[in-house]
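Table S2 (continued). Query chain:
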Amino acid sequence: MSGQQRLTILDSALVSKVWSGHPVDFSLLGNANDTIYASYYDSSEYMTVAMRPPGAGSSWKYKKLTSQLGWDSHNYVTAALDGQNLLHVSGNMHVGSLVYFRSALPGDIGSLQQIASMVGTQENSMTYPVFLNGTGNEMLYLYRDGGSGNGNEYINRWNPGSKTWNRLLGTALFDGQGQRNAYLGAPNAGPVTGPDGYYHLFWFWRETTDASTTHDVCYMRTKNLTQWQTASGTALALPVTSTTTGTIIDTIPEHGGVINRGQISFDAQGRPIISYHKFDASPNGYTQIYNTRLENGKWVAHQTSKWAYKWNFGGNGTLVLQVQFGPVVLNPNGTLTQWFYHYTGAAGPVETGYWVLDPVTLQPTQTLPDAYWPAHLETARNPGMQVNWAQVPSKVDPGTVYALRWETMPNNQDLPRTPVPAATQLMWYKLRDPNASTSVFRRTSDSKRQAKPGRAYIGTGVGWRGGRYWTNGALQRTGSN
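Corresponding output:
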């Protein structure tokens, strides 16, 4: 099997100058006719939306919003279009009050207005907003209320007729009982639609703001997002707590090497595979990637990596991730592949590529090189900075990819920098993807993505270093708290 080919540039344009003091996620959306919506923080740190109609030579239209970013990489911006083509924008929240804008007219960014409240409760301590597609293509909004180590998860439902929100459930989805919180696969992950017609959801528990207190990998599924069950079909009462039986698939103690990040995918038999890392059983307790699969009704943990390196992480704030990975990807030719990246020592260098996996053992049989973006765009042009990307596939041509590229300073655990670096260019690219018929997991310079359908998400964008993983418009993001 040969490696993937790099994308080639068809068109490009400068969108704006943007904030570069630290990495924070931007959002990129495309509608049915490939009108592009980019949501980002401008050079003055204000949340801004830009729109570009389809066609060569089209010009951008802009709308600066009233929300201003601080020194926090958790405060990404995310956006979605509903069934009436109204634009919804949210973000810049880390244990803060609701920040939410909605257009009054379909597709019209000039009519974006700030909405003070969605449902009126649990809206003063919000983090990790995610727009989702529910059953019947209804739009949902998932978020955490409370902080890391003390938070609950709620889901709101959009009513297009009355243009109002209400709670999907009569209770929280997850309840930390004032002592912990659930991280849904990653801080802003959500349900994933599987080939069996179920929504699949996995999560970790976290006891405090210290990332090293993450523990246990858990799972449940549902057909309608309101009635949930274990993998064996046992009904679960809501809200789910850390004592809910039948949900833990891998018991990992605090300080056991697992962090609030992971992936879920499905093999050729439709069996879910949940990917994460933890310390192995060796005397040194090295960090390894595990792919745990549901086999004959039981979860079987397969250690896929064999590294002689330990990432002994901990602390608060957004961390620079030393171990990163993608989901196990089922390719059209039947092979399984998985992207990986890891430090080989405490300060590097790094090793990256993607494995071809044995379908039975989930062990690597071949390692292929990692290449995706045009080579001259992968390296930062500004000294000391990193490259960030956001991308979305064209809905008109599956072989076309739209992307945003910008450069920032790396993570600094959400602490201010002095002096503040100059703003950098936010560039838009239209690219040809020669890998459109294959589904290998692709690395970007500072964010990872794969082209494979199945996620329930409708928001798009890119995360900070190690932060976001993209699946046909799906997101996952990783931060410490």
